[in-house]
Amino acid sequence: MSKIDTQDWRAFQISDLFEIVKGKRLTKAAMTEGQIRFIGASAINNGITAFISNKEHLHPSNTITVSYNGSVGEAFYQDEVFWASDDVNVLYPKFEMNEYIAMFIIPILKKSGKKYKFIDKWKKEDMEKDCIILPVDQTGRPDFSYMETYTKNLAVAVSSSLTALQSAKKLNVLKRFDMQKWARFHLYDIFDIDSGTKLDKVKMDTSTPQISFVGRSNTNNGVTTHVAEIDGLKPYEAGYMTLALGGAYLGSCFVQNQPFYTSQNVAVMIPKENISFEAKQFIATAIFKESQNNYRAFIKELNAHIKRDFSIMLPACEDGTPDYQFMSDYMAHTLEKASRTLLGLRTFIG
């Protein structure tokens, strides 16, 4: 959904839209247990803090409760009869309100209430004077029809997004790996393992940033900056993989998509055969998981093991070799699904 254009919205005094009624104090000692909602100054559970049977001071459904003390400004739509505590103001609509219109107005009320802090409180007399900004129709009155339609469309979009996410979750559960045909492979059987260029980042020339500089980082593909190419020192090729051997981000493994240098304690893995980008991503995940499960920063790091006995579990073919095609297909499917999800979220957010 597209973002709301509020340029033509107008300010309306809250007391012109709602009759504001202060809640009534009811101590815990005076409460009797029951099925009626007791709304307190809470930011969760729709403001419900207890269920009572006391009926002396009940408020009708289709109203909005707003905390003026405690969780100042927290607002909720009430669809059942309730008792409001004396820390809560109840807004009785002076127009034909429904749940969709209320849900449109509530975030705007919350924003208005943010200027009040716990020590200030959002007292009834202050709320009556305050204004909120709302869309207007051609007559200059609040456009309640627009509010209702917008909220309904938003509800449909949210429902669709949740359905898609639930489907994706179920798909992941159904397609969990069958690891009976997996095997353990030493890293040196798949890659030539190089110790890297072991450069010091602070000494690098960044005046003409052309080459990726990969450090012991777990973000941005491990790239911590870009540097000038060093005469006589050829960068590693794009497509090689990097692995942090120690430190806080031990096991962080990435496929580099540009020529690069490395800092201290970053190994470079050069594939011994043609492996697709997707299969490398699969392997990088397996390396990271193995590192996190069986090695520890500053205690048992990868330096002494990476060329000797470091191994990972991978899907295997009938002849015992790594099943790169399975890895490639699985990651391609995963990346496509992630792209669709991100696209849907971007469309939804607007």
Please tell me about this protein's structure:
It is a single chain. This protein has 350 residues and is of the alpha+beta class. It has 2 domains: 10-146, Alpha-Beta Complex (Adenine-n6-DNA-methyltransferase TaqI, Chain A, domain 2), CATH 3.90.220.20; 187-345, Adenine-n6-DNA-methyltransferase TaqI, Chain A, domain 2 (Alpha-Beta Complex), CATH 3.90.220. It has 7 helices and 19 strands. The chain has helices at residues 14-17, 99-113, 124-129, 144-174, 187-190, 277-294, 324-349; strands at residues 10-13, 18-22, 33-39, 48-52, 58-59, 63-67, 75-78, 82-84, 88-93, 131-134, 182-186, 191-194, 211-214, 223-227, 241-244, 253-255, 260-262, 266-271, 311-315. The strands form 6 sheets. It has a 4-stranded antiparallel β-sheet. The chain has a 4-stranded mixed β-sheet with strand order 4-3-8-5, with no helix packed on it. It has a 4-stranded antiparallel β-sheet with strand order 12-18-15-16. Helix 6 (277-294) crosses helix 7. The termini are close together. The mean pLDDT is 88.
